């Protein structure tokens, strides 16, 4: 049986966006690539394709390369958003006037609360729209840009959990995309994808605790393999426990970092440190070459802050996570807690845990809430 060709828009010309766009086009689907600054994807526009190397090798030919968001998403079935989570607000605002109720907008990934914030922004701008926002727990690939128009794919995850907002639409999305990305696996709700966001632990904590090494070597060491020593791993484990307490309070099924490494990469060990050593896809990934990195400016305000703020909302203490937020704020001389994603941004102010659960599953708030 011939597989159905889908029309995709990929929003974002960074590593994740280029990898997704190239892969989807390589599989034979129609792909429009959007980037806010066309100069950053000029070579792709000129040559017409993105080259992949690594565990997936080949060329993905683009249908359209543009900086016009309306053109990018027009007549597409699925909009794959692959930008830093700090850009979700802007992208949601840009998409809101043009999206249709028939489209699926997929955040790759949403980090923590991404789908909730994205939906809240679209509904505030365009109340008549009722888009289906889908949140992926993590990016499908471990990847890096080699040069403009060429991306290295170090590994593809075995499974990526996804959920729609509302969750009653998750199955229809998974059925639609299964022949393209069978690795997308349905989970209960966006509370699972958001609060099982292990990138919140994997990215900023080793970066901040290796800040001296990054500055003295320009990041010339392997981020996960060498940067996560037993002491760093113990701090990661403590922060991970705090994350799971918040997830559990929301009725999500928490999965530990250790469990996630096994589930996603078939990487196991007696400790986090040992399990990370066994992730083949991490062996080529170096630390950031500067502390001006998305591992801090994205993952702290859009991953750790919403966990901490939701913890405060539910009366759960998160002292380890708070300390990482505080250190990041000092390093960048920026109040990340103040500017980060909050319960208010997710449209959940005044809701108790049970009401939040009902909202993400059925898309309904059963009582009038006064903020």
Detailed description of the structure:
The structure is a single chain. An 8-stranded mixed beta sheet has the order 5-2-1-6-7-8-11-12, sandwiched between helices. It contains 18 helices and 12 strands. The protein is an alpha/beta fold. Helices cover 42% and strands 16% of the residues. The protein has helices at residues 15-26, 42-47, 69-73, 88-95, 114-125, 170-177, 190-195, 199-202, 204-209, 211-217, 230-249, 257-265, 272-277, 294-297, 299-314, 319-332, 336-339, 353-362, and strands spanning 7-11, 30-34, 49-54, 58-61, 64-66, 78-81, 104-107, 132-136, 141-147, 150-156, 160-165, 184-186. The chain folds into 2 domains: 7-195, NAD(P)-binding Rossmann-like Domain (Rossmann fold, 3-Layer(aba) Sandwich); 199-343, Orthogonal Bundle (N-(1-d-carboxylethyl)-l-norvaline Dehydrogenase, domain 2), CATH 1.10.1040.10. The model has no long low-confidence stretch (mean pLDDT 94).
Précis, in short:
With 371 residues, this protein is of the alpha/beta class. It contains 18 helices and 12 strands.
Can you name the CATH architecture of the largest domain?
3-Layer(aba) Sandwich
In the CATH scheme, the class of the largest domain would be Alpha Beta
Number of helices: 18
Main sheet attributes: strand count, strand direction, barrel closure: 8 strands, mixed
- Estimate nothing, just give the exact number of structural domains: 2
The number of strands is 12
pLDDT average, as an integer? 94
Runs in which pLDDT lies below 50 for 5 or more consecutive residues are none
The CATH topology name of the largest domain reads Rossmann fold
Give the overall form.
Answer: globular
Strands of the biggest beta sheet: in what spatial order? Answer: 5-2-1-6-7-8-11-12
Question: How much of the residues is beta strand, in percent?
Answer: 15-25%
Give helix and strand order, one letter per element, not per position.
EHEHEEEHEHEHEEEEHEHHHHHHHHHHHH
Question: Strand pairing plus helix content: what structural class?
Answer: alpha/beta
Instruction: Assign a percent range to the helix content.
Output: 40-55%
- Amino-to-carboxy terminus distance: 53 Å
Query: Rg from C-alpha positions?
Result: 20 Å
């Amino acid at each position: 049986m011939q597989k159905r060709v889908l029309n995709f828009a990929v929003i974002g010309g960074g590593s994740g966006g280029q990898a997704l766009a190239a892969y989807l086009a390589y599989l034979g689907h129609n792909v429009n690539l959007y980037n806010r600054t066309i100069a950053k994807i000029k070579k792709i526009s000129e040559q017409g394709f993105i080259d992949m190397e690594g565990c997936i090798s080949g060329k993905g030919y683009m249908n359209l390369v543009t900086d016009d968001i309306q053109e990018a998403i027009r007549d597409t079935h699925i909009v794959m958003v692959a930008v830093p989570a700090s850009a979700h607000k802007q992208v949601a605002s840009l998409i809101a006037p043009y999206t249709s109720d028939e489209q699926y907008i997929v955040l790759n990934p949403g980090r923590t609360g991404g789908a909730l914030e994205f939906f809240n922004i679209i509904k505030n701008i365009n109340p008549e729209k009722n888009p289906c926002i889908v949140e992926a727990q993590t990016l499908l690939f471990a990847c890096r840009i080699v040069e403009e128009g060429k991306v290295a794919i170090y590994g593809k995850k075995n499974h990526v959990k996804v959920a729609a907002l509302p969750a009653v639409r998750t199955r229809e999305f998974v059925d639609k995309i299964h022949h393209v990305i069978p690795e997308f696996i349905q989970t209960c709700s966006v509370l699972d994808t958001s609060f099982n966001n292990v990138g919140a632990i994997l990215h900023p904590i080793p970066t901040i605790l290796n800040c001296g090494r990054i500055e003295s070597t320009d990041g010339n060491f392997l981020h996960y393999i060498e940067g996560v020593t037993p002491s760093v791993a113990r701090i990661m484990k403590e922060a991970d426990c705090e994350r799971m307490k918040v997830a559990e309070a929301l009725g999500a099924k928490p999965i530990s970092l250790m469990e996630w490494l096994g589930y996603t990469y078939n990487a196991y060990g007696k400790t986090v440190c040992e399990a990370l050593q066994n992730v083949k896809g991490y062996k080529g990934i170096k630390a950031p070459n500067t502390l001006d990195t998305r591992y801090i400016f994205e993952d702290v305000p859009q991953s750790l802050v919403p966990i901490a703020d939701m913890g405060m909302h539910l009366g759960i203490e998160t002292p380890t996570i708070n300390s990482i937020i505080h250190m990041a704020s000092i390093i960048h001389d920026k109040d990340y807690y103040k500017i980060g994603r909050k319960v208010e941004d997710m449209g959940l102010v005044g809701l108790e845990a049970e009401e939040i659960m009902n909202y993400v599953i059925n898309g309904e708030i059963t009582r009038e809430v006064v903020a």
